[in-house]
Amino acid sequence: MKPDIWDQLKNITAAELIRALENDGWKPRVGSGSRRIYKKGLNLVSIHYHPKKSFGSDLLKDLLIDIGWNEEDLKRLKLVK
Fold first, then answer.
1. Total structural domains in the chain?
2. Cα radius of gyration rounded to whole Å, the chain
3. Is 81 within a domain?
4. Within a domain: residue 39?
5. 3-class SS at 76?
6. Structural domain of residue 7, as residue ranges?
7. Residue 25 belongs to domain with CATH number
8. Average of pLDDT values for 37-56?
9. Is residue 16 predicted with pLDDT exceeding 90?
10. Per-residue confidence (pLDDT) for residue 57, from 0 to 100
């Protein structure tokens, strides 16, 4: 991922990421406590939900890989400019 894109993403909160997932067609599944599970087609992703906290860089990178978003998707979802 390009450094300028990463600079825009590195402080994304769980609430912002979940809003983008839902806007991209991901549907919530049953989750417990601070863990929220979303499904799109056959894909599942688990988000640790603490609304105002941002993710660590390694966790965020892994989540983006699991979700499968590319730079165009991130722009379409207004997560980056």
1. 1
2. 12
3. no
4. yes
5. helix
6. 3-76
7. 3.30.920.30
8. 90
9. yes
10. 85
